From TrEMBL:
<dbReference type="GO" id="GO:0006518">
    <property type="term" value="P:peptide metabolic process"/>
</dbReference>
<dbReference type="InterPro" id="IPR034005">
    <property type="entry name" value="M3A_DCP"/>
</dbReference>
<dbReference type="Pfam" id="PF01432">
    <property type="entry name" value="Peptidase_M3"/>
</dbReference>
<dbReference type="InterPro" id="IPR024077">
    <property type="entry name" value="Neurolysin/TOP_dom2"/>
</dbReference>
<dbReference type="GO" id="GO:0006508">
    <property type="term" value="P:proteolysis"/>
</dbReference>
<dbReference type="GO" id="GO:0046872">
    <property type="term" value="F:metal ion binding"/>
</dbReference>
<keyword id="KW-0482">Metalloprotease</keyword>
<keyword id="KW-0862">Zinc</keyword>
<keyword id="KW-0479">Metal-binding</keyword>
<dbReference type="InterPro" id="IPR024079">
    <property type="entry name" value="MetalloPept_cat_dom_sf"/>
</dbReference>
<comment type="similarity">
    <text>Belongs to the peptidase M3 family.</text>
</comment>
<feature type="domain" description="Peptidase M3A/M3B catalytic">
    <location>
        <begin position="253"/>
        <end position="707"/>
    </location>
</feature>
<keyword id="KW-0645">Protease</keyword>
<keyword id="KW-0378">Hydrolase</keyword>
<dbReference type="InterPro" id="IPR045090">
    <property type="entry name" value="Pept_M3A_M3B"/>
</dbReference>
<protein>
    <recommendedName>
        <fullName>Peptidase M3A/M3B catalytic domain-containing protein</fullName>
    </recommendedName>
</protein>
<dbReference type="GO" id="GO:0004222">
    <property type="term" value="F:metalloendopeptidase activity"/>
</dbReference>
């Protein structure tokens, strides 16, 4: 039941007061929230109450030389915990159930979040303590863990504007509040566009090539949207209604034999939020402006410089130098790939130059010709439930844990809940999975987010709770949710993030799980898990036809693995261009009427093998990672981390290539678990990598995995 989306009459005043002060589930500080009882009206009163409690606690907090670094860290983590828990809960509802009730309070909630952070980080005693522990006299006497936490917290204090003068603080805080609202609006506009746009097909000829499962879904969607006309419709004759979503985009552009339909879907996606009442154009430029204002107030020339002050990479130049050899290989490979694709399309009777809405279609046909496999033909072998069960079984064996599903109500009926225990049955953590698409109210893409961290507050041991959310096609009455291979990679990727949060052993919340990991290292564990999808024995186990139970043949599995190198140059080049664009927009870029953000992107697209279509520059207006997520000046992180994750997986490849020795593989898995999963943010990813590999990262493995060897 979607509690946030069923309009109800306003309750009488006494009942509102009762909900706020007595029965508000967000004021329950037990192990975790009862998500099925949370309503939008609970958030603001609960947050206000928590902020008031924080203010009371801070009013009596004074500096003393007697307090140790350990005591201070545990104190500040206790102060932050109620705030962080409600912020994570609001983030969960905003991402997964983003209806009008949540949106109505988003700006106020965001402002409260900024105010609460200022309460804590502008507190004079907090500033005194962090300055004291960071001093040349005290800092060397701290333990390595205390040093890392104090270093990170002191820098956060600086980035929060705590050392600005009052007038500068006011400007900084206003820019921060504006930025928070703009980022929410950017994402909301995309959700609204997807929820209010669709493609309705009345001509059966235009559906040629589309998968049966997709047509069934389109027919059901039409009937639900037009109940008065459903009696005259039929699955065979239509009509069919297709949402504007990532899954629809892939289904149509890869499979539709109708070039008109492919172009229509492409244009729908690339005009998304580019103009009209849901335009993100002005929002994007305002986001860039606010970020630049904040960075310059703090003494940085650019937002990119400010962002990189918290990361492994130190400058845009360092990143470009690292990526340049990969870019050269990617560009050369991309030219060869797209020339071959053009020739292949011509051999099938295509005339003229391939357009962006043709590339996916002919690439799919070319892959079928080269490898005798088709993505849609493979989907029946990868039902969501079976893939999930196999992923869990593999994880249990690799990391010696036990994952069990439990009965527990959540925020939506599709959500399932699991506990994680060690080999002795000791509880370690728990997590939720929210797997299916809800167009218009659930943000696109896939992600994980924490709800609680592992930490010890001095009295109580807290265990981690997280959730994983994807946008897979939901099951129908006669068919389970079927995944593409890219979907399988997606759930492995997000589960890699989840494991890093769940299996941490750190007792300070500040460095537990993903906390304090430099942003360009957070994708290491997730991308490490991706590699296992194409490990032949596991891929065979992942495949099972949902009707017959048959596994994919060894020949098909070999073909799938060989296909992983297909068109990788083009994919890598696109990733490098987007990462460079992000750094440049937040770097030395200066807005002008003849040098807009989309102009900059369009000029960068000229590096592609095919001349770009002008409309492609509109991708910026749905670039959620950068403009409504946490990847500003950090989109490069995916490739940066992939270099390390590929090198880590190469260690397993080396072990698996030797005569079978399960003891060595167990030792290697344990070593990975004890470093990348259990250490959390206690050390930088560079240090953790060297502990695991005994050397610095190399690009050899990623070049080999992508098939870009000369």
């Amino acid at each position: 039941m979607l509690l946030l989306h069923i309009p109800t009459p306003p309750p009488p005043a006494p009942l509102i007061e009762h909900v706020i002060t007595v029965d508000n589930p967000l004021l329950n500080q037990s192990y975790e929230f009862a998500y099925d009882t949370i309503l939008a009206p609970h958030f603001i009163p609960a947050y206000t109450s928590i902020c008031a409690n924080l203010q009371t606690s801070l009013s009596s907090f004074t500096f003393s030389n007697e307090m140790s670094a350990d005591a201070f860290i545990r104190w500040i983590e206790k102060m932050e915990d109620p705030l962080e828990r409600i912020e994570h809960a609001f983030s969960l509802f905003s991402a997964n159930l983003n209806g009008p009730e949540i949106r109505a309070i988003s700006e106020e909630f965001s402002s409260l979040g900024i105010e609460s952070a200022k309460l804590l980080y502008y507190n004079s005693a907090v500033i005194q303590y962090l300055t004291h522990f960071k001093s040349d006299e005290i800092f060397p006497t701290l333990s390595p863990l205390e040093q890392r936490i104090i270093e990170k917290r002191y820098h956060r204090l600086f980035l929060e504007g705590a050392f600005l003068d009052p007038a500068e603080k006011q400007i900084f805080t206003q820019a921060e509040q504006d930025l928070s609202f703009l980022m929410m609006q950017f994402g909301n506009n995309i959700n609204d566009y997807m929820g209010s746009n669709c493609i309705t097909v009345y001509d059966k000829d235009k559906t040629k090539g589309l998968p049966e499962s997709y047509l069934a879904r389109g027919f059901n969607t039409y009937c639900k949207a037009h109940p008065d006309e459903s009696s005259e419709a039929s699955l065979d004759e239509g009509p069919w209604q297709f949402p504007i979503s990532c899954s629809s985009y892939a289904a149509i552009l890869q499979n539709s034999e109708s070039r008109d339909l492919r172009e229509e879907m492409f244009l729908k996606m690339y005009t998304m939020c580019a103009a009209g009442p849901l335009s993100n154009q002005e929002i994007l430029t305002s986001i860039l402006s606010d970020r630049k204002t904040m960075a310059q107030l703090l003494g940085f020339d650019t937002y990119t410089a400010m962002s990189l002050s918290t990361k492994i990479a130190h400058s845009h130049e360092d990143i470009s130098t690292l990526f340049e050899p990969l870019k050269v290989k990617a560009k050369k490979a991309s030219e060869n790939e797209l020339n071959a694709l053009q020739n292949f399309a011509n051999s099938l009777g295509f005339s003229g130059e391939l357009k962006p809405w043709d590339v996916g279609f002919y690439a799919e046909k070319m892959a079928a010709s080269l490898f005798d496999i088709n993505n849609e033909d493979l989907k029946p072998y990868f039902s969501f439930d079976h893939v999930k069960a196999t992923l869990f079984d593999f994880t249990q064996k690799l990391f010696n844990v036990c994952i069990e599903q439990q009965t527990k109500a959540a925020w939506h009926e599709d959500v399932t809940f699991y506990t994680v225990k060690d080999q002795n049955g000791t509880m370690l953590a728990s997590f939720y999975i929210d797997p299916f698409e809800r167009t218009g109210i659930k943000r696109p893409g896939a992600w994980m987010d924490e709800q609680k961290s592992r930490w010890h507050d001095g009295d109580v041991q807290h265990l981690p709770v997280t959730y994983l959310s994807t946008n897979f096609s939901p099951p129908t009455e006669n068919m389970p949710s079927l995944l593409s291979l890219q979907d399988v990679i997606t759930i492995f990727h997000e589960f890699g993030h989840t494991l890093q949060h769940l299996l941490t052993k750190q007792e300070y919340k500040s460095i537990s799980g993903l906390n304090s990991i430099e942003w360009d290292g957070v994708e290491i564990a997730s991308q490490f898990m991706e590699n296992w999808v194409y490990f032949k024995p596991l891929l065979r186990r992942l495949s099972r036809h949902y009707e017959t139970g048959a596994r994919l043949s060894n020949e098909k599995i070999d073909a799938i693995i060989n296909k992983t190198k297909f068109m990788q140059g083009s994919s890598l080049l696109r990733q490098i261009i987007l990462g460079d664009l992000d750094l440049e927009l937040h770097g030395d870029y200066i807005y002008a009427d003849d040098n807009t953000p989309e102009d900059l992107y369009f000029s960068m697209l000229s590096q592609k093998a095919f001349p770009p279509e002008p409309i492609e520059k509109n991708l910026l207006y749905r670039f959620t990672h950068v403009f409504s997520g946490g990847y500003a000046s950090g989109y490069y992180s995916y490739l940066f981390a992939k270099i390390m994750s590929s090198d880590i997986f190469a260690a397993f490849e080396e072990e698996l290539s030797l005569p079978r020795n399960s003891k060595n593989l167990v030792e290697l898995s344990t070593k990975y678990k004890e470093t990348f999963l259990e250490m959390g943010g206690s050390k930088s990813p560079e240090e953790v990598f060297k502990l695991f590999r005994k050397r610095a990262p190399s690009t050899e493995a990623i070049i080999r995995h992508l098939g870009l060897n000369d």
